[in-house]
């Protein structure tokens, strides 16, 4: 049985060129970039090149990129780092109810430290309103953190509008772009973004690698103290192969972006067509114009656990939501925020996410299998 | 012939380690938190790696928290204890010679209202258990002492300190083992260690992987929160390939220890002897009480250490000025200063750090190159480097 992996939003397979670049780096550029000798300088050069590739992809300066161990660290660093560095200025933060747990848990940590956090609601499509952000802003608001696009339902947030709103307010604007980066071109200046988190393993790069964009004017306290790496903002010997892998993944993502967007939209449409023609009862979660690779669907009358188990038995890897909450199948906090606690959708939704290695045949087979399983499960 | 003598900065990954990484990254890429079959395969690999590492370190699998490396593990230990136990007390004891990833979080905690005692060291670079005993107070929540100093190789009396702390059950004991793993054994149980730090790239593993041992029963406030991985202690999708590679590196490193530790000790003794024969050098590493892989010496006055490093590089010999983490900034070595060698000598420290791959045959040409470099640079600067 051919396995069909439709969980690219949880993590994605490493691109062979990325793996090749990393292995070369591990064997040839093993020096510590802080060492002043040849091996150190060679690693330093590779690091600098990777840094400019990432900076370029965001319209940022090289000095504004801080490499981290991944998206979770980048989110924690953005929130806790700016809160701690600016706590004399204010102790209020604004975020949304549908952020990734890396943001939500960092907020909870800050609340324990005496910070005040406003969690904005979203509409039934998972979208936050700019008016709500405006209404929540206070004189002592130091940070607004709103994800670029949601990881479970794919809804893209009004980042440009929020960025424009915040131009006249001293609060910094952080966006968790882990799911959007690579598929949506992002220029931090155009969007008015001050901090942006990204992760390598969501874009066919290696795990253990990510970055935080930090606008030059932002005051931030490090999360990790020690050596003077990353301009004293993130200590620890740089994971050069991981960073090179990230840079290479970014280059590939940019080169293939348009083709992928078209492909994913077509796959989404193909699944929709099969679902519709089968007469299946289903509701698409999210919005029409969301991230093209995320397709979240509720099948009323089913239970997500049996759905996933049956899909897995049929060779299809999908998910109930973010992988990080998947260990326990608690109802997704994103769907709860969108549909309320009582909605059946919070217990019957599956996320399919497309990516490298998928084929149209796979997508069609997955849709057909899903139809069979849903019909079986809803037969009374 | 290339001679790499900077293994305390970072080591070259074992080929088997790179292979393990490549296999896992390419074929078992799924997220271990995913419920589907592919996720479970990744989860199984992660669990096996955790069990193997735990067995090799003589601890329980549930006591291992994987991190992005030694710096994160040290930050996590220090700040995790401080935030978790701050109601119990706000006093921390450490030494003047810790790695910056211990010293800097301590400084941060001082700014946030904690009190930190930095114990001085003797001329041999060691603290004593008596110093720790004298510094202990009722409100001491943590003692953090490194096992092997990264600059001069001094081995700290961890077991004796552990014996002192056995009488203070409310004080936690953290040991930075980054330089000691695979080179100097340590009995975790006998030493009464509650937390220790390991970094993979110091024993031919990959950068971006490390761990913190957290003894069962010790609670820590997470440094990186989110999806709740690592039993809620460290969030973020697990770097499975690098963790599996770390398990492999540790196994190979411990095998090399079993086979070659005698040879490494002899190698170091020969190095020390050869360097001691150069009268213009001052040896900073004590013959006794030091690790088998680190040798530190100071250049004669007038020679700038970074110029010396570049001069040696011309002969394809790679050494370091001080720890790599602070080598860009020219400042006297903190460890050498603490040992009381004086500012001048502390500014001219050079570190040689060996791995099991270094060979006897390297000593002669390397020492000749060192002598030649001193001669050349003394002539340039017109200083009085002794002629040998």
From TrEMBL, chain A:
SUPFAM superfamilies: PLP-dependent transferases. Its cofactor is pyridoxal 5'-phosphate. It comes from the Bacteria. PROSITE patterns: AA_TRANSFER_CLASS_5 (PS00595). InterPro entries: Aminotrans_V_dom (IPR000192), Aminotrans_V_PyrdxlP_BS (IPR020578), Cysteine_dSase (IPR016454), PyrdxlP-dep_Trfase (IPR015424), PyrdxlP-dep_Trfase_major (IPR015421), PyrdxlP-dep_Trfase_small (IPR015422). Transmembrane segments: none annotated. Residues 4-365 form the Aminotransferase class V domain. Pfam families: Aminotran_5 (PF00266). It catalyses: (sulfur carrier)-H + L-cysteine = (sulfur carrier)-SH + L-alanine. Keywords: Iron, Iron-sulfur, Metal-binding, Pyridoxal phosphate, Transferase. Its EC number is 2.8.1.7. GO terms for molecular function: cysteine desulfurase activity. Belongs to the class-V pyridoxal-phosphate-dependent aminotransferase family. NifS/IscS subfamily. This is cysteine desulfurase. It comes from Geobacillus icigianus.
Automatic annotation (TrEMBL), chain B:
Gene3D superfamilies: Aspartate Aminotransferase, domain 1, Type I PLP-dependent aspartate aminotransferase-like (Major domain). One of its GO terms (molecular function) is cysteine desulfurase activity. Its cofactor is pyridoxal 5'-phosphate. Keywords: Coiled coil, Iron, Iron-sulfur, Metal-binding, Pyridoxal phosphate, Transferase. Residues 3-364 form the Aminotransferase class V domain. The keyword Coiled coil applies. Residues 247-274 form a coiled coil. Pfam families: Aminotran_5. Its EC number is 2.8.1.7. Belongs to the class-V pyridoxal-phosphate-dependent aminotransferase family. NifS/IscS subfamily. This is Cysteine desulfurase IscS. It comes from Geobacillus icigianus.
């Amino acid at each position: 049985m051919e396995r069909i992996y439709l969980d690219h939003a949880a993590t994605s397979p490493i691109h062979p060129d990325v793996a090749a670049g990393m292995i070369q780096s591990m064997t040839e550029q093993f020096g510590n970039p802080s060492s002043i000798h040849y091996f150190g300088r060679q690693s330093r050069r590779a690091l600098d090149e990777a840094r400019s590739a990432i900076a370029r992809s965001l319209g940022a300066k090289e000095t504004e990129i801080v490499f981290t161990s991944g998206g979770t660290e980048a989110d924690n660093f953005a929130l806790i780092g700016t809160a701690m560095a600016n706590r004399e200025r204010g102790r209020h933060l604004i975020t949304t109810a549908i952020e990734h747990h890396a943001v939500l848990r960092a907020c909870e940590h800050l609340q324990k430290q005496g910070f005040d956090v406003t969690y904005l609601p979203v509409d039934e499509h998972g979208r936050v309103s700019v008016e709500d952000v405006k209404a929540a802003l206070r004189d002592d608001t130091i940070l607004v953190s709103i994800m670029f696009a949601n990881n479970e339902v794919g809804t893209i947030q009004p980042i440009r509008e929020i960025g424009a709103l915040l131009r006249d307010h001293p609060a910094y604007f952080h966006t968790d772009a882990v799911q959007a980066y690579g598929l949506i071109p992002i220029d931090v200046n155009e969007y008015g973004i001050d901090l942006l988190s990204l992760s390598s393993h969501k874009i066919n790069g290696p795990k253990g690698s990510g970055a935080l964009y930090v606008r030059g004017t932002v005051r931030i306290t490090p999360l990790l103290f020690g050596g003077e790496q990353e301009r004293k903002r993130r200590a620890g010997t740089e994971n050069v192969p991981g960073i090179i892998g990230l840079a290479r993944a970014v280059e590939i993502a940019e080169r293939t972006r348009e083709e992928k967007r078209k492909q994913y939209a077509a796959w989404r449409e193909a699944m929709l067509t099969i679902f519709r023609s089968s007469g299946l009862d289903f509701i698409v979660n999210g919005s029409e114009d969301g991230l093209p690779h995320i397709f979240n669907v509720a099948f009323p009358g089913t239970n997500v656990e049996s759905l996933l188990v049956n899909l897995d038995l049929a060779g299809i890897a999908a998910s109930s939501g973010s992988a990080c909450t998947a260990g326990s199948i608690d109802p997704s906090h994103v769907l709860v925020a969108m549909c309320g606690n009582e909605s059946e959708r919070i217990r019957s939704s599956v996320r399919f996410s497309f990516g490298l290695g998928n084929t149209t045949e796979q997508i069609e087979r997955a849709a057909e299998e899903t139809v069979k399983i849903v019909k079986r499960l809803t037969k009374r | 012939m290339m001679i790499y003598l900077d293994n305390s900065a970072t080591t070259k990954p074992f080929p088997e380690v790179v292979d393990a990484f490549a296999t896992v990254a390419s074929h078992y890429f799924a997220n271990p938190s995913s419920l589907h079959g592919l996720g479970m395969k990744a989860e199984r690999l992660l669990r096996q790696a955790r069990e193997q590492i735990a067995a090799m370190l003589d601890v329980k699998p549930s006591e291992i928290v994987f991190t992005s490396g030694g710096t994160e593990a040290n930050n996590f230990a220090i700040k995790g204890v401080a935030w978790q136990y701050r109601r119990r007390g706000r006093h921390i004891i450490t030494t003047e010679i810790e790695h910056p990833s211990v010293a800097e979080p301590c400084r941060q905690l001082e700014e946030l209202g904690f009190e930190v005692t930095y114990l001085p060291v003797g001329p041999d670079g060691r603290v004593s258990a008596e110093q720790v005993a004298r510094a202990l107070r009722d409100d001491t929540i943590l003692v953090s002492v490194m096992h092997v100093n990264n600059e001069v190789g001094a081995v700290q009396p961890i077991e004796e300190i552990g014996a002192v702390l056995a009488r203070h059950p409310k004080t936690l004991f953290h040991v930075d083992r980054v330089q000691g793993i695979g080179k100097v054994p340590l009995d975790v149980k006998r030493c009464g260690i509650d937390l220790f730090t390991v970094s993979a790239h110091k024993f031919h593993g990959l950068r971006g992987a490390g761990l913190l041992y957290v003894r069962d029963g010790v609670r820590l406030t997470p440094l990186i929160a989110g999806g709740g991985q690592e039993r809620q202690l460290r969030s973020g999708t697990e770097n499975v390939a690098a963790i599996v590679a770390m398990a492999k590196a540790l196994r190979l490193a411990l095998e090399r220890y079993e086979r070659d530790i005698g040879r490494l000790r002899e190698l170091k003794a020969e190095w020390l002897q050869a360097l001691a024969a150069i009268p213009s050098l001052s040896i900073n590493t004590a013959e006794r009480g030091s690790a088998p892989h680190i040798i530190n010496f100071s250049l004669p006055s007038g020679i700038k250490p970074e110029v010396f490093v570049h001069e040696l590089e011309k002969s394809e010999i790679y050494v370091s000025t001080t720890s790599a983490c602070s080598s860009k900034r020219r400042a006297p070595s903190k460890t050498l200063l603490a040992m009381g060698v004086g500012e001048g000598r502390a500014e001219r420290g050079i570190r040689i750090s060996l791995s099991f791959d270094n060979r006897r045959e390297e000593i002669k040409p390397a020492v000749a190159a060192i002598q030649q470099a001193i001669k050349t640079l003394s002539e340039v600067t017109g200083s009085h480097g002794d002629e040998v």
